[in-house]
Amino acid sequence: MDDKLMLMIPGPTPVPEQVLLAMAKHPIGHRSADFGKIMAEVTANLKWLHQTQNDVLILTASGTGVMEAGIINFLSPGDRVLVGSNGKFGERWAEVTDAYGLNTERITAEWGKPLDPEQFRLALEADVDKQIKAVVITHSETSTGVINDLETINRHVKAHGKALIIVDTVTSLGATNVPVDAWGLDVVASGSQKGYMIPPGLGFVAVGAKAWEAYKTAKLPRYYLDLGKYRKDAAKNTTPFTPPINLFFALQAALRMMQAEGLEAIFARHHRLLAATRAAVQAMAMPLLAADECASPAITAVMPSGVDAEQIRSVMKKRFDIVLAGGQDHLKGKIFRIGHLGFVSDRDVLTAIAALEATLQELGHEGFTSGAGVAAAAKVFASH
């Protein structure tokens, strides 16, 4: 049946009808007063979402683009940086720092396990000459469904005194609490197609005072990604380059929806969806990749035994028009990932779990009672 596709992946995520309708408007001039009003509104609402008084800049870019911008605007060739790598995206940021000739030191953990804050503490305390200029962290590691302990790692960075913390919050911002000012986060990057509930194409980067001070002496090359240009123009409610105007219409509508729901309600919904999904998967006798204490509210990674992960994804798509994400790199074919961030409700999770049960029965997966997954998810919803 046409138009029944259901995205249960970590991005792009489902888009609300009112956001889609907002995008359908005729474009307006990006140098017009009308666009300036939209720019002013979305900038204010982005600061609300980030819980910050700092600049929150809007780029026409993916999450990778704004993370690259967040790295190159504040560093110089040869600078020493610590990069946390416990999945596909943590490793990507290390590849970016390598590409720009930075002195990259990886702090790693096994995929599916969280980064150890103690390793950061030891490395930062050993840096008596204050050579470490930045620590780059992925908050929610999308490839594995692990959330890293950003608050503790950031505390160790703050104790160092010199280093900036540069954070990938691509699948955590808008899904869990990221209090930028309360934690004193220096650079925070995210993308539109995740918790923001709009299609891909916009990237956001919050920049604090300490980072702007570093910007003054940073010497890595930049032009389109020069955040100074965006800051200067944002002060006048405009952009340095042509933006995707209709995505700004979408952003305006989505942020209004988020404000109507409220931050605490948004976070509670995501954590409820996480708990229900994990309970359902365990009731269906399938192991989870990440432990409860480090599970991301954005996505749940499942390691099925006795049934092929790609077969599960194939049947879910062909029979039920539900898209699940696969594993990446060495986890390809070994896991599948259920996204539950952005415009996702309790009903969506129940639907996906019911379809997953039917899929497992079709593929001959044994060891669970029919309906156990739905019952486990429903029990979580009843108690939250």
Automatic annotation (TrEMBL):
| Cofactors (names) | pyridoxal 5'-phosphate
Q: Which Gene3D superfamilies match?
A: Aspartate Aminotransferase, domain 1 (3.90.1150.10), Type I PLP-dependent aspartate aminotransferase-like (Major domain) (3.40.640.10)
The record's listing under InterPro entries reads: Aminotrans_V_dom, Aminotrans_V_PyrdxlP_BS, PyrdxlP-dep_Trfase, PyrdxlP-dep_Trfase_major, PyrdxlP-dep_Trfase_small, SP_NH2Trfase/AEP_transaminase
The N6-(pyridoxal phosphate)lysine modification is found at K194
GO MF terms, alphabetically ordered: alanine-glyoxylate transaminase activity; L-serine-pyruvate transaminase activity
Q: Which UniProt keywords apply?
A: Aminotransferase, Pyridoxal phosphate, Transferase
| The keyword Nucleotidyltransferase is annotated on this UniProt entry | no
Ranges of residues in domain Aminotransferase class V: 10-328
- Keyword presence, Magnesium: no
The entry assigns this protein to a family as follows: Belongs to the class-V pyridoxal-phosphate-dependent aminotransferase family.
Entry protein name: Alanine--glyoxylate aminotransferase family protein
Q: Which organism is it from?
A: Phormidesmis priestleyi ULC007
